[in-house]
Design a protein that fits this description.
This protein has 326 residues and is mainly alpha-helical. The chain has a single domain, classed as ABC transporter involved in vitamin B12 uptake, BtuC (Orthogonal Bundle), CATH 1.10.3470. Helix 1 runs parallel beside helix 7, helix 2 runs parallel beside helix 4 and helix 2 crosses helix 11. 43% of the residues are buried.
């Protein structure tokens, strides 16, 4: 297989995990909530999905991959959504600082994932012995017929179902935010909650729903990494900085879900570029890993200079809304 095709495949595989996290955070930020707990919710979704598949396979002599797939999917969605719910209670109901709450959620989620990952390893007989091969095989099923198309099949149709779900989520989110009344209401809440409240929009409800659903989408990013990317295995701290890359992608995409699709491909390519350049030392490799952040900073500077309203974050992003001050 030509090296360029292999590079594109690996870039897409890297980018999908980031795309899930970015989609979840875009939906959250459109409501005005700034949730820096994306890495934590991805860990929570990943370990919940893995645990559900592991316990199912451990208790069944002939596990059905489809059942394991559904159990893992539901567990990841619920775990990520619970992370978003915790953040919502802290910041909307209790009015805690959004930055501190998000960072605390990340610390909690990463610690929770590592703790249960180690516990599952011991339950399975030792570190590195976790096996959810049957369920992972369902996540890695590729599209028949289409995958056999020369070149195009290798580049576009050689991935598991979650890859295409990530892209579908981007398309549906773009339609929802720009073409539906509810999407308009959500954007109004993120721009000016006082005006939205005066227009009869339930600000708290929209913030809660956007943050919880956004957390569930982030949880799918963790599930993708564990099941499709890693083949149903768990490594403590194995996610690296992918959660933070998802937050950076939100800015790079200028809060547009469709931009996040091609942006995730670019981020994935930049993230692994050093592997395809021979002779790089360790310090030089780390510089290459910084490229997605550098590109994001450049985009942030350019959009700030242009001052186009549609390229800016929601006006009330990161701010609490107190109805009595309306």
């Amino acid at each position: 297989m030509p090296a360029i095709i292999t590079f594109l495949q690996n870039a897409i595989r890297q980018g999908i995990c980031i795309l899930f996290g970015a989609n979840g955070e875009i939906l959250t930020e459109k409501s005005g909530n700034l949730n820096l707990g994306v890495p934590g919710m991805m860990y929570m979704g990943g370990i919940a999905g893995l645990a559900a598949a592991f316990m199912y396979e451990r208790g069944t002599q002939t596990p059905n991959p489809s059942v394991g797939f559904l159990l893992a999917l539901i567990a990841a969605l619920v775990a990520g959504g619970l992370g978003g719910l915790v953040y919502s209670v802290l910041t909307i109901s209790l009015r805690a600082n959004q930055n501190v709450s998000g960072l605390a959620l990340t610390t909690f989620g990463v610690g929770l994932g590592n703790f249960f990952g180690g516990s599952l390893s011991k339950l399975a007989g030792g570190v590195g012995q976790i096996s959810t091969a049957a369920t992972a095989s369902a996540f890695r099923l590729t599209l028949p017929v289409l995958r056999d198309i020369p070149v195009v099949g290798d580049v576009l149709f050689s991935y598991g179902l979650l890859t295409y779900i990530a892209i579908a989520v981007s398309v549906v989110m773009s339609w929802y935010l720009n073409r539906t009344r509810q999407g308009l209401c959500l954007r109004a809440v993120g721009e000016n909650p006082a005006t939205a409240d005066a227009a009869g929009i339930n600000v708290s409800l929209y913030k809660y729903l956007a943050t919880v659903i956004g957390g569930a989408i982030c949880g799918l990013g963790g599930l993708y990494f564990v099941m499709e990317y890693s083949g149903g295995t768990w490594t403590n701290n194995g996610f690296g900085d992918r959660g933070w890359l998802a937050v950076a992608l939100v800015i790079f995409a200028r809060w547009r879900p469709l931009n996040a699709v091609w942006g995730s491909l670019l981020f994935g390519a930049l993230y692994i570029l050093y592997l395809y350049i021979p002779g790089l030392g360790r310090s030089t490799q780390e510089i290459f890993k910084m490229l997605p952040y550098v590109v994001t900073i450049i985009v942030l500077i350019l959009t700030s200079l242009r001052k186009k309203k549609e390229d800016q974050p929601p006006e009330s992003l990161g701010q609490h809304y107190f109805r009595e001050e309306r």
